[in-house]
């Protein structure tokens, strides 16, 4: 019992950091950074690496219908629901090495501490790498965890296409073939975990500014994604008078100004981002016929998101600079509050190392936002330098990471000891 409740002391910090460095080589960019898009060759290699590390610890490896990969350390009572720890291994197109990977390798460090100490536990422990959390290749993101938690249907996920027209279903088939060839067991159906824990970089500046190495996270703000198409008329740039133009770019600009005005009516917790923008035919001397762009809208309040959604839909029904608009919500993920008892357990573990650690609400969405609908769920954050993420300059301090992983291990031990 004592070994479990102080499991963090058994974490091999050097091996954990070596694992981080090894994972950073898979899909490494020059001179720095990482590119590991969901279900591409690098992402698949990262999964197989994880399977091999788990087998070294005596774990069985599994994959499911969405390519989620699990490492299972058996418990004394295999019929009990497993404690689940993890995150994701896929990245943004030009990313850092810690977003997602940190949480998977923290789970691996917990497995290694249990293995090293030959510690037995009643319920199983599993580490998971969820498929397509980022949504950088196949939108929307968090495909694997959303399906697992019953928040999204498989059919809609499988039909998603990347920018090159490749289907999620085809990329998944290639991934699953590699897992099967690696003798990973197929487990098609989701299960209900005892609890889910996820460690992640904060992706914001708060913890670094406070000098705190980790903190418990009590919830995640909601996220709405929209796809917008503005249709105009292509024509010659030099011969078409202004009054005769239906310029899709001008229409998009006017619509975006109105959308931002709607956002400004609410509090500063609103996050409004246009991450993609494209014009057709995209020629210097041709008036744009079509403008397409994405919207990422976030807030901790479901009521605020609903109010803004209503405004967005009304604005999208109007014409802008003579152009028609199609505004479609491609994804809506409601805000969640994590299990209060689990948050307090994480908070107690963190405060062994950082007595003044706060409790934060996540501004970014994570796989945990879906798992919270299936089982008790909570997260832990650690600082990243200057709050930078989704960029090659993403950086964490090893000392902070080791504290966070030890706190995660202590939490896992406390849950396993119950």
Give a brief rundown of this model.
By secondary structure, the protein is an alpha/beta fold.
User: Spans of 5+ residues with little confidence (pLDDT < 50)?
Assistant: none
CATH third-tier fold name of the largest domain:
Aminopeptidase
Strand content: 15-25%
Q: Return the average pLDDT rounded to an integer.
A: 97
Query: Which sequence of SSEs, written as H and E, runs from N to C?
Result: HHHEEEHEHHHEEHEEHEEEHEEHEHEH
Number of domains: 2
The CATH architecture of the largest domain: 3-Layer(aba) Sandwich
CATH classification, class level of the largest domain: Alpha Beta
Query: What sort of overall outline do the alpha carbons produce when their principal axes are compared?
Result: globular
Give a verbal description of the structure.
- Helices cover 35% and strands 20% of the residues.
- It has helices at residues 2-5, 13-24, 41-56, 101-116, 143-148, 154-158, 168-181, 206-210, 248-264, 302-316, 340-351, 368-371, 398-416, and strands spanning 60-63, 69-73, 83-88, 125-130, 185-186, 195-201, 215-220, 222-231, 271-273, 277-280, 290-299, 324-333, 336-337, 359-362, 377-382.
- The strands form 2 sheets. Strands 1, 2, 3, 4, 5, 6, 7, 13, 14 and 15 form a 10-stranded mixed sheet that branches. Strands 8, 9, 10, 11 and 12 form a 5-stranded antiparallel sheet that branches.
- A hairpin with a 5-residue loop joins strand 1 (60-63) and strand 2 (69-73).
- Helix 2 runs antiparallel to helix 4.
- It is globular, with a radius of gyration of 23 Å.
- The mean pLDDT is 97.
């Amino acid at each position: 019992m004592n070994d479990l409740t102080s499991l963090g002391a058994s974490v091999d910090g050097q091996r954990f950091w070596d694992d981080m460095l090894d994972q950073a080589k898979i899909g490494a960019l020059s001179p720095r950074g990482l590119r590991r898009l969901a279900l591409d060759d690098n992402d698949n290699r990262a999964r197989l690496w994880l399977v091999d590390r788990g087998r070294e610890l005596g774990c069985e490896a599994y994959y499911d219908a969405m390519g989620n990969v699990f490492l299972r350390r058996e418990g004394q009572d295999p019929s009990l629901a497993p404690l689940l720890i993890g995150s994701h291994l896929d990245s943004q197109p030009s990313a850092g090495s810690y977003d997602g990977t940190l949480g998977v390798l923290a789970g691996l460090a917990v497995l290694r501490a249990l293995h090293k100490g030959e510690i037995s536990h009643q319920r199983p422990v599993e580490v998971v790498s969820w498929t397509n959390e980022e949504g950088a290749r196949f939108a929307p993101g968090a495909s694997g965890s959303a399906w697992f938690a019953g928040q999204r249907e498989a059919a809609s996920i499988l039909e998603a296409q990347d920018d090159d027209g490749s289907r999620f279903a085809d990329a998944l088939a290639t991934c699953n073939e590699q897992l099967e060839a690696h003798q990973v067991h197929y487990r098609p159906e989701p299960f209900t975990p005892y609890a889910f824990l996820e460690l992640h970089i904060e992706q914001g500046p708060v913890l670094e500014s406070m000098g705190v190495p980790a903190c418990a996270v009590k919830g995640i703000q909601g996220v709405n994604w929209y796809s917008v198409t503005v249709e105009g008329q292509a024509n010659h740039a030099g011969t078409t008078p202004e009054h005769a133009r239906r310029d899709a770019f001008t229409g998009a600009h006017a619509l975006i100004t109105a959308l931002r005005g709607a956002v400004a009516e609410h509090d500063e917790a609103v996050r409004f981002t246009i991450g993609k923008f494209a014009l057709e035919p995209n020629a210097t001397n041709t008036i744009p016929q079509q403008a397409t762009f994405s919207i990422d809208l976030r807030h901790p309040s479901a009521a605020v998101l609903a109010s803004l959604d209503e405004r967005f839909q009304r604005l999208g029904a109007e014409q802008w600079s003579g152009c028609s608009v199609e505004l479609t919500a491609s994804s809506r993920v409601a805000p969640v509050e994590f299990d209060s008892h689990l948050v307090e357990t994480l908070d107690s573990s963190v405060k062994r190392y950082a007595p003044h650690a706060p409790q934060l609400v996540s501004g970014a969405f994570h796989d945990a936002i879906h798992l919270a609908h299936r089982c008790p769920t909570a997260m832990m954050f650690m600082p990243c330098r200057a709050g930078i993420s989704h960029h090659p300059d993403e950086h964490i301090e090893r000392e902070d990471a080791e504290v966070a992983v030890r706190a995660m291990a202590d939490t896992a031990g406390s849950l396993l000891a119950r």
